[in-house]
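Weekly sync, protein design subgroup
Attendees: M.S., D.O., the rotation student, P.L. (late)

Item 1: inverse folding check
M.S. brought a backbone from last month's batch and wanted to see whether the design step gives back something sensible before we order anything. D.O. pointed out we never logged the input encoding, so this time it goes straight into the notes. Structure tokens as presented (316 positions):
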């Protein structure tokens, strides 16, 4: 079910919009002031569409603009529609800097019909963006699997690293490697999983991969991470791509990712943030635990239902 936020200080118009949208099956949150809207945005999960009146209260000329900013800081993919009835385009222009879907003049004839039509188009647009940017089928999403699996290219690099570094350095014995390769073939599991099953430390695996790929390895400590940069990327994207941003300096975003060869995910983050991404290697388990600690996990099933990839409990 799509989730929509409506912010308008005209209580009659607000009530009418909420009733009409709920009749169409949408989940709707409403607010009639800047303060109430921002509180809802902070406390709620992300919205698919936000409809914001640009002028909230006579004394607050930029109230709507502050709500637009709060919506965008909460989520990169929420589609924003702004309403204006005073012909002032200055705040609309400022709102465009935060990436709005459409603005509608409330005084225009058939403005309401235009609004509901644009809501549906905005929802379609959001879904198309996610499909295009993610570029993955449901069976490829890591959260669907019991085990996150790095790409074949990265697994091959790990194998080479084990031979080049881990065995000579004594981090793993030749027998452990042989047994792991045999188990990988027999059970059709990842090399990393097979190594762990054969008592190879996860830290040794990541150190080896870091050496082979020449990408620095970081063990994440949630308390040291800039949570604001984490919140600027939708949680579902962090989980699907198994990555987390940890710092931003000027136009450079530092990202810890489970698979540094996953160029698709790296390009996705660059598209969302407009930043140049600097990559560090991280442990899949450590990345997911850190996301949970910072954002308070939304759960695998809820995530997949959001993308309509599995049936709801009612349908099972």
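Designed sequence read out in the meeting:
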């Amino acid at each position: 079910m799509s989730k929509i936020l409506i912010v308008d200080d005209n209580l009659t118009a607000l009530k009418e919009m909420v009733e009409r949208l709920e009749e169409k099956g949408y989940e709707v949150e409403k607010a009639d002031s800047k303060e109430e809207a921002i509180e809802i945005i902070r406390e709620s999960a992300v919205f698919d569409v936000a409809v914001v009146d640009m002028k909230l209260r006579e004394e607050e000329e930029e109230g709507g603009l502050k709500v637009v900013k709060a919506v965008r800081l909460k989520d990169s993919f929420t589609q924003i529609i702004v309403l204006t009835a005073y012909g002032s385009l200055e705040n609309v222009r400022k709102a465009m800097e935060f990436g709005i879907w459409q603005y509608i003049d409330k005084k225009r004839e058939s403005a309401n019909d235009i609004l509901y039509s644009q809501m549906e188009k905005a929802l379609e647009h959001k879904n198309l963006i996610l499909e295009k940017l993610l570029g993955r089928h449901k069976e490829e999403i890591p959260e669907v699997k019991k085990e996150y699996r790095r790409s074949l290219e990265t697994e091959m690099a790990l194998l080479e690293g084990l031979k080049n570094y881990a065995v000579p350095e004594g981090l793993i014995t030749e027998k452990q490697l042989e047994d792991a390769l045999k188990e990988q073939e027999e059970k059709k599991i990842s090399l990393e999983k097979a190594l762990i099953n054969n008592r190879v430390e996860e830290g040794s695996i990541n150190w080896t991969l870091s050496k082979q790929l020449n990408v620095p390895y970081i063990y994440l400590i949630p308390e040291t991470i800039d949570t604001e940069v984490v919140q600027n990327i939708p949680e579902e994207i962090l989980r699907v791509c198994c990555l987390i941003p940890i710092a931003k300096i000027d136009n450079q975003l530092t990202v810890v990712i489970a698979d540094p060869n996953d160029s698709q995910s790296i390009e996705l983050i660059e598209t969302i943030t407009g930043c140049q991404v600097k990559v560090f290697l991280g442990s899949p388990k450590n990345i997911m635990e850190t996301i949970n600690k910072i954002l308070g996990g939304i759960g695998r099933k809820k995530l997949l239902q959001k993308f309509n990839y599995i049936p709801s409990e009612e349908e099972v």
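Discussion: Residues 136-146, 297-316 have pLDDT under 50 and may be disordered. Residues 163 and 260 are 20 Å apart (CA to CA).
Action: P.L. to compare against the previous round before Friday.
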